[in-house]
């Protein structure tokens, strides 16, 4: 396998700047996920790595070798597309070996690679079937197998799970991660689904408007988002944001939002002076309904009417308001909640986030 290095990568479409100078180091054998909303540039970066898009400026290296002008076939990469891109008139067996055949690989070697891939992916019972006779998950495995037999240095996945139903998506996600670990493969995976990013990645690259918003492990980008965009994009449901101001309480600093003053640990933040307006961020799991979950020691209480409850089986999401702004709380071990029912909530002050109102950057230490 190989490293992938991007240095000051820019992509222009006429006068439109799609990628605005991206630096990225992908280490050998790591699973890196590019994630972000539609139009952020994640698929464009993947296609530049693959050689399907030209690079307007900057350097791209695979395994230390400059590949800007190298044809796709010579880069040591294999790509799995969202649409699978299988040959409909060929059997699974022929789909797996066709690329090797036209590449001049000897027949015994084709047979060896094809057999290994089919065994690893559980495709042996389907080798004589055509794609139309397969389920979506089986077709995706064939597409992955076709990439595997090339024995590439880098695997590229372009939203490969988006055409699958929820159950198949979860199963295939586990299979891809298990396969990556078995092969020790370098993987670059593109998705708009932050749950996929969190569960698959060794390293997440959050993209926004053609720029890197943050790079880190899934836990880092969830627990310590660099700015308000990352905080709102990573996590389900999205983080609650409220207009707030810094203040001083009897026991130390507070952040006041919606008429509620929340005690926060001074050592957690580089807080501005008292009276400064800020943006307060609170995740749903850090707004605890009374009697449902461990009551946070540091924080503040408020009472509000539940406007809507979304039952999710092992938990519920409660939609309520704080100071006229809708907020979502997570209820563990849920019970039926009627619309209009008042509940008392506790905000965990030790886990809130504070963002500079002007720059939208986090003020976490």
3D architecture notes:
The structure is a single chain. With about 375 residues, the protein is an alpha+beta fold. Helices cover about 25% and strands about 35% of the residues. The chain has a six-stranded mixed sheet with strand order 6-7-8-3-9-10, with helices on both faces. A five-stranded antiparallel sheet has the order 13-12-11-14-21.
Number of strands: 21
Number of helices: 8
Secondary-structure content class: alpha+beta
Gyration radius from CA atoms, angstroms:
24 Å
Instruction: Give the termini separation.
Output: 37 Å
What's the rounded overall pLDDT mean? 93
Report the portion of residues in β strands: 35-45%
Describe the sheet with the most strands. Answer: 6 strands, mixed
SSE order: EEEHEEEHHHEHEHEEHHEEEEEEEEEEE
- What strand order characterises the main sheet? 6-7-8-3-9-10
Q: What's the shape?
A: elongated
Percent in helix: 10-25%
Keywords:
365 residues; alpha+beta; 6-stranded mixed β-sheet; 5-stranded antiparallel β-sheet; 8 helices
Write the layout of secondary structure elements.
Elements: E1 4-13, E2 16-26, E3 31-35, H1 42-50, E4 57-62, E5 65-66, E6 77-80, H2 92-102, H3 107-121, H4 136-148, E7 154-158, H5 166-183, E8 186-191, H6 194-200, E9 203-208, E10 211-216, H7 218-223, H8 228-233, E11 240-249, E12 252-257, E13 260-263, E14 277-282, E15 287-289, E16 299-305, E17 308-311, E18 315-322, E19 325-332, E20 342-348, E21 353-356
Parallel strand pairs: 3-8, 3-9, 6-7, 7-8
Antiparallel strand pairs: 1-2, 1-4, 4-5, 9-10, 11-12, 11-14, 12-13, 14-21, 15-20, 16-20, 17-18, 18-19
Helix pairs in contact: 2-3, 2-4, 3-4
